Amino acid sequence: MEPIRKISSRTVVLPYSDIDTDQIIPARFLTTTSKTGLGQHAFSNWRYNADGSAKSDFILNQPAAQGCKILVAGNNFGCGSSREHAPWALLDYGFRAVISTEIADIFRSNSLKNGLLPLVIDKDTHAWLMNNPGIELKIDLENNSLLLPDGKTVTFSIEGFARYCLLNGVDELGYILKQLDAIKQFEQAHA
Q1: Does some domain include residue 1?
Q2: Is residue 57 part of a domain?
Q3: H-assigned helices in 48-118
Q4: Distance of CA 145 to the CA centre of its chain
Q5: CATH of the domain at 54
Q6: What one-character DSSP code corresponds to residue 105?
Q7: Which runs of E-coded beta strand occur in 26-182?
């Protein structure tokens, strides 16, 4: 997992509420245990016509969305099923962060465990981001803050252990494996 300290990127705005995990990655693409290749299927039902051609009016198919690492979405993002493929698809597409006023608990947990930063922010800042797509936004995980183009700083919170893992580029198993020496010492001392 790649460490996250700062993310600087233009934003892509999906102005819809209640985007569920089946919209993020439709069930027909859940036949893999690999994270690679899922990005091409992210929002597939919205991005492609029945014949597989790209829908030119969908934001992710427009040149302005290319290379953006920050997705700003409507309220209640990631609701629905607990599929871990949803954050995998967003990461494989190229997103490093998702911003909303509400992110479903299971989606948030899966995102944090896989290196996607799910940020819940206040409604006023969110409304401004929704109304200003494509702005350059800076996320500073070290200081738990967003820096807006006008210089305004907005803070957010991330659970401590998840923040540690994201900053250091380790998942939960990676964290445990880094503790093996201490675990062995403890086991020897308490044998």
Answers
A1: no
A2: yes
A3: 85-93, 105-114
A4: 16
A5: 3.20.19.10
A6: H
A7: 70-73, 97-100, 117-120, 136-140, 145-147, 153-155
Cα–Cα distance for residue pair 190/148, rounded to 1 Å: 52
Residue 94 belongs to a domain: yes
Alpha helices in 104-171 (DSSP H): 105-114, 123-131, 160-168
**Facing residues of 155 across strands?**
145
pLDDT in tens, 75-91: 999 998 888 999 999 99
How many whole angstroms separate alpha carbon 77 and alpha carbon 19? 5
**175: enclosing H helix or E strand:** helix 172-178
Instruction: Using alpha carbons, select from 44, 39, 29, 21 the residue that is nearest to residue 107.
Output: 21
Q: Which residues of 139-167 are buried (b: 16+ CB within 10 A; e: fewer)?
A: bbbeeeebbbeeeeebebebeeebbebbe
49: which 2 tokens? Answer: 């016509």
Using CA atoms, how far residue 76 sits from 16, 20, 98, 103, 156, in Å, is: 9, 8, 12, 5, 17
Q: Is residue 104 part of a domain?
A: yes
- Residue 50 domain boundaries: 6-189
Number of domains in the chain: 1
**Model pLDDT for residues 125-154, shown as the tens digit of each residue:** 999 999 999 999 999 999 999 999 999 999
Q: Measure CA 168 to chain center.
A: 17
